[in-house]
Write a structure and sequence with these properties.
single chain, alpha+beta, Heat Shock Protein 90, 3 domains, elongated, EC 2.7.13.3, ATP-binding, Sig_transdc_His_kin-like_C, two-component regulatory system, nucleotide-binding
Length: 453
C-alpha cells in the first residue's frame, strides 16, 4: 500500500492538534453533562482520549469516511469498557452519544470555517501555527464551559442519565440505539459535505436510510409516549387495588383481634375482675380511636377507599396518619379521580417511606385538601429531617431516589407531571419544626372557561 504524500506529518498534526484535545475535552464534557465526574476519572479520561485519538488517526488518511466513523464508534466503546469497567452499558452508550454529538458539532463548525480558507485540503496543507489558531480557540471555549459546569455542578443531562438507568423497558433502550445510528449517518453526511466526498450511490443510500430512520424514530417516540401514559394509568390502578387489598386484610385482622378482645373481656367479667376489665377496655377504646379511619363519611368513593387503605397501612407501620378533607374540595371536578388518586397516593407513600426511618413515637403524616380562591390545594406533611435546597431541587427528577430497596424514583416525578398537566404548581417546604410539606395547587380550569364564556 502506497502512503499518501506527507502522511506522517499530517497524521501527527491531526493527532496532537485536533484529535487528542477534542477526545479529552469531549469525554470530560460528556461525563460532566451526565452528572458524574469523580476525581478518579480524570487520569483515565486523559488516557482514554490519547489512546483513542492515536488509534483512529493512524488509518484516517487510508480508509473511507464511513469506515472511519464506524471505527471511531467501535473503538471508543471498547476503550471505555476497558478503562471504565464500573460503568453500566447504558452509561457507556450515553457517554458515546454525547461524544458523537460534540464531535459532529466540531466537524460542522470547522468544516464551515475551512470553506472560507479554500476547503479541507487547503487547511490540511497550512502551517502548524495556522491550525493551532484555527482549532484551539474552539477547544478552549468548550473546555472553559465544561469547567464552569463542573465547578457550578450544572449537569444538563443528569435527568436523562437517571431515567435511562432506572428504565427497564426495551423500547427506550432501542430508541437510544436508533439515536446513535441516526447520529452516525448524520456524521457520514457531514463528512461527505465538508471533508471527503463519497460516491453518489453511497451518498444516496445513506440519505434514504437517514430519512427512513427519522420517520421510524418519530413513530416510535409517539408510541412510547402513548404507552407511557397508559402504563401510568395501569400503575395507578395496580396501586389502588393493592391498597384496597391491604385495607381488606387489615379489616379482617381487626375483626379477628376484636373477637379476641371480646373473649378476654367476657372472661374478666365472669371472674369479676372489674378493675382489670376497665383498664383493658380503656386500652381497646384508645386503640380504636387511634385508627382515625372514619372515611366512610367522604362522598367520593375513590378518595374514601384511598384514605381508608393508607390509614390501614399507617396502622400497620405504626404511623400516626391524620387527614382533613374539606367537603368543598370534593366538588372540585377539574381533576379526574384517577389523577387525584395518583397524586395523593404517591405523596402519602413518599411520606410513609420517610417517616418509617424515624422512631415510632415520631412518625407523623398529615393530609389536607381544601379549596381557596376556587383553586384546589392538597398538602401532605411528614416529620423528618430538614432537606437541603439541592435535595428539594433533585427529588422530582425521574430516577432520583434515596431508597435502595427497589424504588424507581418515579413517584414524585409522576406527581409533578400530573400536576403540570392541569397547569398546577408543586412547592416543597422543609424546616426542623414542621419536617417536609408538599403543597399542590391546581387551578379550576372549568371555572375559568365558564367565566370567559
Amino acid at each position: 500500500m502506497t502512503l499518501p504524500p506527507d502522511y506522517l506529518s499530517n497524521t501527527l498534526q491531526l493527532i496532537f492538534i485536533v484529535s487528542i484535545p477534542q477526545a479529552i475535552i469531549g469525554l470530560w464534557f460528556s461525563f460532566v453533562c451526565l452528572g458524574f465526574f469523580p476525581e478518579r476519572f480524570a487520569r483515565r479520561i486523559v488516557i482514554c482520549g490519547i489512546l483513542h485519538a492515536v488509534y483512529i488517526d493512524i488509518p484516517y488518511f487510508l480508509i473511507p469516511p464511513w469506515i472511519h466513523i464506524f471505527n471511531v464508534l467501535l473503538s471508543i466503546y471498547v476503550l471505555i469498557s476497558l478503562i471504565f469497567p464500573e460503568l453500566k452499558p447504558k452509561i457507556k452508550l450515553l457517554v458515546i452519544l454525547f461524544l458523537m454529538l460534540l464531535s459532529t458539532v466540531f466537524e460542522m463548525i470547522y468544516g464551515l470555517i475551512a470553506q472560507f480558507f479554500g476547503g479541507y485540503d487547503t487547511v490540511l496543507n497550512q502551517i502548524v501555527a495556522f491550525k493551532l489558531l484555527l482549532f484551539w480557540p474552539g477547544f478552549a471555549i468548550i473546555a472553559l464551559a465544561t469547567g464552569i459546569m463542573h465547578w457550578k455542578k450544572i449537569h444538563i443531562a443528569q435527568q436523562i442519565r437517571r431515567f435511562i438507568i432506572h428504565v427497564r423497558s426495551m423500547p427506550y433502550f432501542m430508541l437510544l440505539l436508533l439515536v446513535a445510528v441516526q447520529i452516525f449517518l448524520f456524521m457520514t453526511i457531514s463528512s461527505h459535505i465538508f471533508i471527503k466526498p463519497l460516491q453518489l450511490i453511497t451518498m444516496q443510500v445513506i440519505v434514504i436510510l437517514s430519512i427512513m430512520l427519522f420517520i421510524y424514530m418519530t413513530i416510535k417516540i409517539m408510541r412510547i409516549i402513548a404507552s407511557a401514559r397508559i402504563e401510568g394509568i395501569y400503575q395507578s390502578q395496580d396501586t389502588y387495588i393493592n391498597d384496597l387489598t391491604r385495607m381488606f386484610a387489615s379489616i379482617r385482622g381487626q375483626r379477628h383481634d376484636f373477637a379476641n378482645h371480646v373473649q378476654v373481656m367476657y372472661s374478666m367479667l365472669a371472674l369479676k375482675k372489674y378493675d382489670q376489665l376497665r383498664t383493658y377496655m380503656e386500652e381497646v377504646v384508645k386503640e380504636i380511636q387511634s385508627m382515625n379511619v372514619a372515611v366512610v363519611e367522604l362522598p367520593s368513593p375513590a378518595l374514601a377507599a384511598l384514605v381508608q387503605a393508607k390509614a390501614a397501612i399507617a396502622m400497620e407501620k405504626k404511623i400516626r396518619f391524620d387527614y382533613l378533607v374539606h367537603t368543598a374540595s370534593l366538588t372540585f371536578s377539574a381533576v379526574t379521580s384517577i389523577d387525584l388518586v395518583r397524586i395523593i397516593g404517591n405523596l402519602v407513600d413518599n411520606a410513609f417511606d420517610e417517616v418509617s426511618k424515624l422512631p415510632e413515637s415520631e412518625r407523623e403524616v398529615h393530609l389536607e385538601m381544601y379549596i381557596h380562591n376556587s383553586d384546589l390545594y392538597i398538602t401532605v406533611a411528614n416529620t423528618g429531617k430538614q432537606l437541603t435546597d439541592e435535595e428539594i431541587e433533585q427529588m422530582f427528577n425521574p430516577g432520583y431516589t434515596t431508597k435502595a430497596d427497589g424504588h424507581t424514583g418515579l413517584g414524585l416525578a409522576n406527581v409533578l407531571e400530573r400536576v403540570h398537566s392541569y397547569n398546577g404548581h408543586v412547592s416543597v417546604d422543609s424546616d426542623i419544626d414542621r419536617g417536609v410539606v408538599f403543597t399542590i395547587r391546581i387551578p379550576n380550569s372549568k371555572l375559568a372557561k365558564s367565566k370567559l364564556a
